[in-house]
Design brief:
This protein is α/β, with parallel strands linked by helices. It contains six helices and nine strands; from the N terminus they run E-E-E-H-E-E-H-E-H-E-E-H-H-E-H. Strands 5-4-1-6-8-7-9 form a seven-stranded mixed beta sheet, sandwiched between helices. The radius of gyration is 16 Å and the shape is globular. It starts with 9 loop residues before the first strand and ends in a 7-residue tail after the last helix.
Protein backbone atom coordinates (compact mmCIF):
# COMPACT_ATOMS: atom_id res chain seq x y z
CA UNK A 1 0.00 0.00 0.00
CA UNK A 2 1.42 3.37 -1.01
CA UNK A 3 2.18 5.80 1.80
CA UNK A 4 0.48 9.22 1.52
CA UNK A 5 2.72 12.05 0.36
CA UNK A 6 3.47 14.49 3.15
CA UNK A 7 3.70 18.22 2.51
CA UNK A 8 4.37 21.26 4.68
CA UNK A 9 1.64 23.11 6.62
CA UNK A 10 -0.51 24.95 4.11
CA UNK A 11 -3.18 27.60 4.56
CA UNK A 12 -6.21 27.30 2.29
CA UNK A 13 -7.32 30.65 0.85
CA UNK A 14 -10.78 30.94 -0.70
CA UNK A 15 -10.89 33.96 -3.00
CA UNK A 16 -14.37 35.41 -2.75
CA UNK A 17 -13.55 39.07 -3.27
CA UNK A 18 -14.71 39.47 -6.88
CA UNK A 19 -17.50 41.77 -8.02
CA UNK A 20 -19.50 39.06 -9.87
CA UNK A 21 -20.51 41.52 -12.60
CA UNK A 22 -21.55 38.80 -15.06
CA UNK A 23 -23.87 37.34 -12.42
CA UNK A 24 -25.45 40.73 -11.71
CA UNK A 25 -23.46 41.25 -8.51
CA UNK A 26 -23.65 39.50 -5.16
CA UNK A 27 -21.66 36.57 -3.81
CA UNK A 28 -21.30 33.83 -6.41
CA UNK A 29 -20.03 31.53 -3.68
CA UNK A 30 -23.52 31.51 -2.16
CA UNK A 31 -25.18 30.09 -5.27
CA UNK A 32 -26.66 26.66 -4.69
CA UNK A 33 -25.44 23.85 -6.95
CA UNK A 34 -26.99 20.43 -6.46
CA UNK A 35 -28.59 21.54 -3.20
CA UNK A 36 -25.27 22.76 -1.72
CA UNK A 37 -23.77 26.24 -2.00
CA UNK A 38 -20.58 26.57 -4.00
CA UNK A 39 -18.86 27.90 -0.89
CA UNK A 40 -19.87 24.88 1.15
CA UNK A 41 -18.58 22.64 -1.63
CA UNK A 42 -15.27 24.50 -1.69
CA UNK A 43 -14.89 24.35 2.09
CA UNK A 44 -15.79 20.66 2.22
CA UNK A 45 -13.16 19.93 -0.40
CA UNK A 46 -10.38 22.12 1.02
CA UNK A 47 -10.76 21.52 4.77
CA UNK A 48 -9.20 18.03 4.77
CA UNK A 49 -6.33 19.25 2.59
CA UNK A 50 -5.23 22.30 4.60
CA UNK A 51 -3.85 23.17 8.02
CA UNK A 52 -6.37 26.03 8.26
CA UNK A 53 -8.71 28.00 5.99
CA UNK A 54 -9.50 31.67 5.51
CA UNK A 55 -11.76 33.59 3.14
CA UNK A 56 -10.64 36.64 1.19
CA UNK A 57 -13.61 38.96 0.68
CA UNK A 58 -14.22 42.69 0.60
CA UNK A 59 -17.23 44.47 2.04
CA UNK A 60 -19.05 43.37 5.17
CA UNK A 61 -17.27 40.28 6.58
CA UNK A 62 -20.34 39.38 8.65
CA UNK A 63 -21.96 37.82 5.58
CA UNK A 64 -19.52 34.91 5.97
CA UNK A 65 -19.88 34.65 9.76
CA UNK A 66 -21.72 31.34 9.44
CA UNK A 67 -18.53 29.67 8.19
CA UNK A 68 -16.67 30.41 11.41
CA UNK A 69 -13.60 31.29 9.35
CA UNK A 70 -11.45 34.44 9.39
CA UNK A 71 -12.48 36.83 6.61
CA UNK A 72 -9.60 38.92 5.28
CA UNK A 73 -10.11 41.92 3.01
CA UNK A 74 -7.67 43.18 0.37
CA UNK A 75 -5.07 45.54 1.78
CA UNK A 76 -4.50 47.01 -1.70
CA UNK A 77 -7.40 49.34 -2.58
CA UNK A 78 -9.73 49.58 -5.58
CA UNK A 79 -10.39 45.87 -6.21
CA UNK A 80 -6.91 45.14 -7.54
CA UNK A 81 -7.84 41.61 -8.58
CA UNK A 82 -6.89 38.14 -7.39
CA UNK A 83 -3.24 39.03 -6.73
CA UNK A 84 -4.47 41.40 -4.03
CA UNK A 85 -6.46 38.58 -2.47
CA UNK A 86 -3.43 36.31 -2.57
CA UNK A 87 -1.33 39.01 -0.93
CA UNK A 88 -3.97 39.35 1.81
CA UNK A 89 -3.69 35.61 2.45
CA UNK A 90 0.10 35.63 2.55
CA UNK A 91 0.19 38.57 4.95
CA UNK A 92 -2.49 37.04 7.18
CA UNK A 93 -0.51 33.80 7.40
CA UNK A 94 2.68 35.65 8.32
CA UNK A 95 0.91 37.63 11.05
CA UNK A 96 -1.36 34.95 12.47
CA UNK A 97 0.08 31.52 11.63
CA UNK A 98 3.88 31.87 11.48
CA UNK A 99 4.19 28.07 11.44
CA UNK A 100 2.59 28.02 7.97
CA UNK A 101 4.91 28.72 5.05
CA UNK A 102 2.53 28.07 2.15
CA UNK A 103 -0.84 29.29 0.92
CA UNK A 104 -3.02 27.34 -1.53
CA UNK A 105 -5.51 29.62 -3.24
CA UNK A 106 -8.77 28.62 -4.91
CA UNK A 107 -11.62 30.69 -6.36
CA UNK A 108 -14.87 30.79 -4.44
CA UNK A 109 -16.82 29.96 -7.61
CA UNK A 110 -15.38 26.49 -8.40
CA UNK A 111 -17.83 23.84 -7.15
CA UNK A 112 -15.89 20.73 -8.27
CA UNK A 113 -12.37 21.14 -6.87
CA UNK A 114 -10.23 17.97 -6.70
CA UNK A 115 -9.62 16.17 -3.42
CA UNK A 116 -5.89 15.92 -4.17
CA UNK A 117 -5.33 19.56 -5.12
CA UNK A 118 -2.89 20.66 -2.43
CA UNK A 119 -0.73 17.55 -2.41
CA UNK A 120 -0.37 17.62 -6.19
CA UNK A 121 0.50 21.32 -6.24
CA UNK A 122 3.23 20.65 -3.69
CA UNK A 123 4.44 17.62 -5.64
CA UNK A 124 4.67 19.68 -8.84
CA UNK A 125 6.54 22.46 -7.06
CA UNK A 126 9.01 20.10 -5.43
CA UNK A 127 9.43 17.97 -8.54
CA UNK A 128 10.34 20.94 -10.72
CA UNK A 129 12.21 22.80 -7.94
CA UNK A 130 10.02 25.88 -8.40
CA UNK A 131 8.79 28.32 -5.72
CA UNK A 132 5.25 28.44 -7.15
CA UNK A 133 2.74 26.03 -8.63
CA UNK A 134 -0.59 26.30 -10.40
CA UNK A 135 -3.19 23.94 -11.84
CA UNK A 136 -4.03 23.10 -15.43
CA UNK A 137 -6.92 21.04 -16.76
CA UNK A 138 -6.73 19.99 -20.38
CA UNK A 139 -5.45 22.98 -22.35
CA UNK A 140 -6.50 25.53 -19.73
CA UNK A 141 -4.15 26.92 -17.11
CA UNK A 142 -5.71 28.19 -13.88
CA UNK A 143 -3.28 30.69 -12.31
CA UNK A 144 -5.64 31.52 -9.43
CA UNK A 145 -5.61 27.85 -8.37
CA UNK A 146 -2.10 28.06 -7.04
CA UNK A 147 0.47 27.47 -4.35
CA UNK A 148 2.29 30.50 -2.95
CA UNK A 149 5.20 30.79 -0.48
CA UNK A 150 4.54 33.21 2.36
CA UNK A 151 8.18 34.32 2.02
CA UNK A 152 7.37 36.11 -1.27
CA UNK A 153 4.74 38.39 0.24
CA UNK A 154 6.94 41.53 0.30
CA UNK A 155 7.88 41.08 -3.35
CA UNK A 156 4.22 40.64 -4.27
CA UNK A 157 3.28 43.79 -2.36
CA UNK A 158 5.95 45.77 -4.21
CA UNK A 159 4.67 44.51 -7.55
CA UNK A 160 1.08 45.44 -6.73
CA UNK A 161 1.67 48.80 -5.07
CA UNK A 162 4.77 50.18 -6.76
CA UNK A 163 4.36 48.69 -10.24
CA UNK A 164 0.58 48.48 -10.39
CA UNK A 165 0.92 44.88 -11.59
CA UNK A 166 -2.38 42.99 -11.94
CA UNK A 167 -1.56 39.98 -14.18
CA UNK A 168 -0.89 36.81 -12.21
CA UNK A 169 1.02 35.14 -15.05
CA UNK A 170 3.47 38.03 -15.31
CA UNK A 171 4.33 37.87 -11.62
CA UNK A 172 4.60 34.09 -11.41
CA UNK A 173 6.82 33.99 -14.50
CA UNK A 174 9.36 36.15 -12.69
CA UNK A 175 9.83 33.53 -9.99
CA UNK A 176 9.09 30.24 -11.73
CA UNK A 177 5.89 28.25 -11.61
CA UNK A 178 5.36 24.49 -11.82
CA UNK A 179 2.22 23.07 -13.44
CA UNK A 180 0.08 20.35 -11.87
CA UNK A 181 -2.11 18.60 -14.45
CA UNK A 182 -5.68 17.30 -14.23
CA UNK A 183 -7.93 15.91 -16.95
CA UNK A 184 -10.76 18.19 -18.05
CA UNK A 185 -13.19 15.28 -18.55
CA UNK A 186 -15.66 13.96 -17.64
CA UNK A 187 -15.98 17.03 -15.38
CA UNK A 188 -13.38 19.81 -15.32
CA UNK A 189 -12.38 20.10 -11.63
CA UNK A 190 -11.79 23.83 -12.14
CA UNK A 191 -15.08 24.63 -13.84
CA UNK A 192 -16.06 28.04 -12.51
CA UNK A 193 -19.42 29.78 -12.37
CA UNK A 194 -19.24 33.21 -13.96
CA UNK A 195 -22.64 33.52 -15.66
CA UNK A 196 -26.20 32.25 -15.18
CA UNK A 197 -25.49 29.81 -18.01
CA UNK A 198 -22.49 28.47 -16.10
CA UNK A 199 -24.70 28.00 -13.04
CA UNK A 200 -27.16 25.96 -15.08
CA UNK A 201 -24.36 23.80 -16.45
CA UNK A 202 -22.92 23.32 -12.95
CA UNK A 203 -26.32 22.17 -11.76
CA UNK A 204 -26.30 19.51 -14.47
CA UNK A 205 -22.74 18.42 -13.65
CA UNK A 206 -23.38 18.27 -9.90
CA UNK A 207 -25.03 14.89 -10.29
CA UNK A 208 -21.62 13.49 -11.29
CA UNK A 209 -19.49 15.12 -8.57
CA UNK A 210 -20.06 14.63 -4.82
CA UNK A 211 -20.11 17.76 -2.66
CA UNK A 212 -17.55 16.52 -0.16
Amino acid sequence: MAMPIEFPPTLGLVLAGGLARRMGGGDKARLTIGGVTILDRVLARMTPQCTALIINANGDPARFADTGLPVVADSVPDFAGPLAGILAGLEWAAANRPNIGWVASVPGDCPFLPADLVVRLHAARAGENMPLACARSGAWRHPVVGLWPVALRDELRRALVEEGLRKIDIWTARHGVAIAEWPAAPVDPFFNVNTPEDAAEAERLAAEVPAG
